[in-house]
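EI: anyone free to look at a 342-residue chain?
SC: sure, send it
EI:
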Amino acid sequence: MQHMCQKLCWDGRCSWFSVALPMVLLLLAWHGAPPGGGYAAELIDGIAAVVNNEIITIGEVQEAMAPETEQLQQRYSGQSLQKQVKEQFVQTLQSLIDVRLQIERARKLNLQVSNEDVTFHIEALKKQNQLTDEQLGQMLHSRGLTLETYRQQVREGLLITKVVNVEVRSRLIVLDTELQESYQKRRQRYSVPGALTVSHILFLVSPDAPEAEVERARQKAVAMLQQLRQGGDFAALARQYSDGPSAERGGLLGTFQPGELLPGFEEAIVALQPGEISDIVRTRVGLHIIRLDARQAGTHKPFEEIREELKAELLQAKTESRYQEWLEGLRQGAYVKVLYEG
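SC: here you go
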């Protein structure tokens, strides 16, 4: 049976764990990952590990790591390839052991996944990737799977999601004090930059203008910039020479929120202080000499506005940490004997 890494989702929010849900398998097949070959095709009839009353065969591990093996074969050769493949074997075997332990725990708790849930998730996958039933069947066939085998893999993946929900996430809480502390630590992250008041002197140049025309405009802009550097009156020069409609206002464009200005224009004034002028800046409109007239003080999003976002982030971090502890507990409480490590 092939097991891949997939997201466990709670209430629409996801976090990465190693589980049995093999939806990623279809995506690999869709992008042309070969179904196995080379080293992975040389399946050995032997036991890789014993997990309580179950076994994991060497063939299962090699089958699960087939896509990774193919990638390694493209990047390495000789002893380097053997070393990389062995390391991948050990990692994949541990993932399969963890999967068995989680499924066993779910069954001890009498957790179940309905046929309707399995069908729903497969249909969602098909819709997300715009797959027909025929295309799905072809992908499964390319991986050596039947639809029934694949449904069983999806069922096991959903079963693991359920047991992690029950034993990990449902037992976690986020205190208001933790939210407040997180908000203060990340306050800068939720800052809202202040508005910018800007003026410019524009020399119109179309995006497809010949180089000679661009150069003439550039020479004008260089001369203008030199006058400004020597103390020239920005507003007066803008009224006389600017090609833009803002010329009659002394080049004043107005006040803008971050993100509202032309690409390249806003980036040029980020480091400017009020009253400073930029070097020559080219945008799709032409060549600009920009003056930052004023920068309003920034603000921060209020705590209540981002409370749920903070809660989701903290809950995810707690879940991932607690999940690892819970999984280690399953390992410690189980009989696991590794007999082959590649």
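EI: The chain has two domains: 5-176+314-338, 194-297.
SC: 👍
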